[in-house]
Design goal:
Layout lengths: L9 H69 L3 H32 L6 H16 L16 H15 L4 E2 L17 H9 L2 H7 L1 E3 L2 E2 H4 L28 E6 L5 H11 L3 H4 L3 E6 L36 E10 L11 E14 L1 E3 L2 E3 L11 E7 L14 H17 L7 H10 L1 H14 L21
Antiparallel strand pairs: 1-6, 2-3, 4-5, 6-7, 7-10, 8-9
Length: 467
């Protein structure tokens, strides 16, 4: 009699079935997360680009209106109408603030229309800044600033509060706040922290060399080495708001002093000695903002953008632009320990600017060719961040803002490094003598590999491409 036994296989089948189900579930959740991330990124891109374009459009409207009022000023002076001249000048001063603030409101509407909700941290930051603006009117706290026109700070404060009350979805990332330190300081430069994080020794050699291959990697002692943060700007007259500035300045001068401008106004607007010789206040481009050529957009530069061709001469200038930053939260479902039940923030930063030209003698000229603001803007376009103004300052990068406003003063006073701050961690790494010695030793034999690019927000530490 032959006996045979079979090993039960039902238990193994259950194990394989459960394993297959787990794999299928993980694949399903991964696909859901991938779809969520892609969808949110597309939404963030659409909203960020729309916000930047909306802001740039209002910058164009502001410049065109100020330019039209300059022309109206010529006509009023030709008619010997002093009251009209005074009213026009006052209106231009207000428009230089009202236009950019309308740009800020338009950016919020565009971002929200594209599905991005208000960011509580952005809203709180703008609300805090509105309080700073309110304090500009108080000499008691030592922060009084001269107003560009009567009641300017109250109106400015109220406008910021109204925007904050509606919620801020797109932060104006190239804002320059009056109370911020004004001037160069290594600890206010993001490229420094990026160089520490990536061990970019060439950045130190190219930007902070003290002779030969010696750099701050060798010279650093302790937190007192860096020196105090710069003081805020002490400009007496502030014609531009801090957010989405159009870069203009009021000058009291006769237009005849600018011969090409005087000739253009005579030929195109009938200007005579009545307007050309008047010592009036006119609104000009601030040439420290409006300059040519457009940085990084010229062929042949060591670190220029990869252009297919030269920028047309009439568009080859730097000037007013709008940079916006927004966050699009994406809730993930996968079982990864780093993402289980977590919300990942998708960041999108976009830049846009107004474009236009003046037609003179049948040729297209840059809008700032004559210095005086004239109505000339016809279009807006997205631009690369590398070609935008102040893109590396990241005014609405909340972590960076907190580091600059709160952590750095404590560090420079007593060497304290805040916990949970990425930039403070990198400062601690820089203080490590072993870290600095590695950089010094590398530079002692490899500094010849470091070449200075002719352009770059990173000041030799690399640039960001696209937008």
């Amino acid at each position: 009699m032959r006996c045979s036994t079979r090993r039960p296989s039902s238990g193994q089948a259950v194990v394989f079935l459960l394993a297959a189900l787990v794999i299928l579930l993980a694949a399903f959740l991964w696909n859901v997360d991938l779809h969520t991330l892609v969808t949110r990124k597309i939404k963030a891109q659409n909203a960020g680009d729309a916000a930047a374009l909306a802001a740039a459009r209002w910058q164009a409207n502001t410049l065109n209106l100020i330019g039209q009022l300059n022309i109206a000023h010529v006509a009023a002076r030709e008619a010997h109408d002093d009251n009209a001249v005074a009213a026009i000048t006052s209106m231009q001063a207000r428009i230089s603030f009202a236009g950019p603030l309308t740009a800020l409101a338009a950016a919020q509407a565009a971002a929200k229309k594209n599905g991005i909700e208000a960011n509580p941290e952005f809203t709180a930051l703008l609300r805090r800044h509105a309080q700073d603006v309110f304090e500009f009117t108080s000499p008691a706290n030592g922060r009084e600033l001269r107003e560009p026109y009567p009641n300017a700070w109250t109106e400015y404060h109220d406008a910021l509060i109204n925007i904050a009350n509606d919620g801020v979805a797109a932060g104006p990332d190239n804002a320059r706040f009056y109370a911020d330190p004004c001037g160069d300081h290594i600890l206010l430069t993001k490229a420094f922290y990026e160089a520490v994080a990536g061990r970019e020794w060439c950045w130190f050699f190219l930007n902070h060399s003290s002779g030969g291959t010696r750099t701050i990697l060798d010279d650093f002692t302790d937190h007192t080495f860096f020196g105090p943060l710069p003081d805020p700007s002490d400009e007496e007259v502030l014609e531009n708001p801090e957010i989405f500035s159009v870069g203009i300045e009021a000058r009291e001068m006769p237009l005849r002093a600018n011969a090409p401008l005087a000739e253009y106004l005579r030929e195109n607007f009938g200007a005579t000695t009545n307007s050309l010789d008047a010592h009036d206040i006119w609104f000009f481009y601030d040439q420290s903002v409006w300059r040519s050529p457009w940085p990084g957009m010229t062929l042949g530069m060591d670190d220029s953008l990869p252009l297919a061709g030269s920028v047309r001469d009439e568009y080859d200038y730097a000037g007013a632009d709008a940079v916006t930053r927004l966050y699009a939260p994406a809730s993930l479902l996968s079982f990864s320990s780093s993402t289980n039940g977590a919300t990942r923030q998708i960041v999108w930063t976009a830049a846009a600017r107004p474009f236009g030209y003046i037609i003179a003698d049948g040729s297209r000229l840059r809008p700032n060719s004559f210095g005086l603001v004239l109505p000339s803007y016809r279009d807006i376009r997205l631009i690369p961040l590398d070609a935008a103004s102040y893109g590396n300052d990241s005014s609405f990068d909340i972590d960076w803002r907190q580091h600059c406003d709160s952590h750095l003063p404590d560090y420079l006073d007593n060497g304290a490094l805040a916990s949970g701050c990425r930039y403070c961690v990198l400062l601690g790494r820089f203080e490590d003598s072993t870290f600095r010695r590695q950089g010094s030793e590398w530079l002692s034999t490899n500094s010849y590999k470091c070449t200075l690019p002719s352009y770059g927000h990173g000041q030799g530490g690399g640039t960001r491409r696209g937008h």
